[in-house]
Amino acid sequence: AGSQWSDDFQATLYLSHRATNNGAHYFVESFDTINDLGAISDGYINWDTNRALVELGRSGSNPPPPYHPNGTVTSLDVLRGIANNNILSVDFQPVMWDFGKNIEYQFSNNGTSWTIWLSFPGQSVPNAVTVPFVSVGDKLFWRMRLNSTAPQISPQVYQLRFNWQENTSPIACFTVNPNLEVSASRIILIKV
Which residues pair with 74 in a beta bridge? Predict the structure, then answer.
């Protein structure tokens, strides 16, 4: 008996962590570091780098459950340290599990003007949506609001995926001037 080969295989889905490709304008927030954590407000949020997720924080002095009923977290500029032009829009896709509760998202290209709140009820990996900005700015912030009416349940967010579009200068069709002939002896006239 020797080795036997099979056409069957097993694949495992891994979430990419901290994947950033500035040239392609792509960023993934995977919650495995707190580098982009700006502020937590309106309740309690647990940004858990060990489990790489965000959920509602505790309610009371003990670890959850019970969970606090609501919380909001705002990022730092995820493009800080990167030279950008005006950010026109962002394609956004969360990876989450809402457990029948509420998760909402907002975005800003300057840190002061925010888009409307977006939500994706019952979808764990919804299709990406394009979020346009009406304000002028060269930054990218996100804000997330979690709510639960059941103290034993918290929605969880595992990843936020971004692909932003900038207003860049157009690339010239010609990078050098074409030759210009001014000598009369080299000009050809064609009569029709």
Answer: 39, 143
Tens of pLDDT, residue by residue over 80-106, are 888 788 999 999 999 999 999 999 999
Among residues 164, 159, 147, 57, the alpha carbon closest in space to that of 102 is found at 147
Residue identified by tokens 């080795």 is 3
CA atoms 16, 22, 26, 31: torsion sign: positive
Among 13, 23, 24, 20, which residue's Cα sits nearest to residue 36? 20
Closest CA to 94 of 132, 145, 43, 134: 145
Q: How far apart are CA 45 and CA 73, in angstroms?
A: 7
Measure the CA–CA gap between 100 and 111, rounded to whole angstroms: 30
Q: State the pTM of this model.
A: 0.76
Region at 35 (left for phi over 0; alpha for psi -120 to 50; beta for the rest): alpha
Q: Provide the terminal-to-terminal Cα distance of the chain, rounded to the nearest Å.
A: 87
At 160 the pLDDT is 96
Pull the structure tokens for residue 108: 């800003």
pLDDT of residue 62: 78
Closest CA to 160 of 90, 88, 81: 90
The one-letter code for the residue type at 131 is V
Contact 102, 71 (CB under 8 A): no
Instruction: Provide the pLDDT confidence category of residue 192 given band limits of 50, 70 and 90.
Output: low
3-state helix, strand, coil in the chain (%, to 5): 0, 35, 60
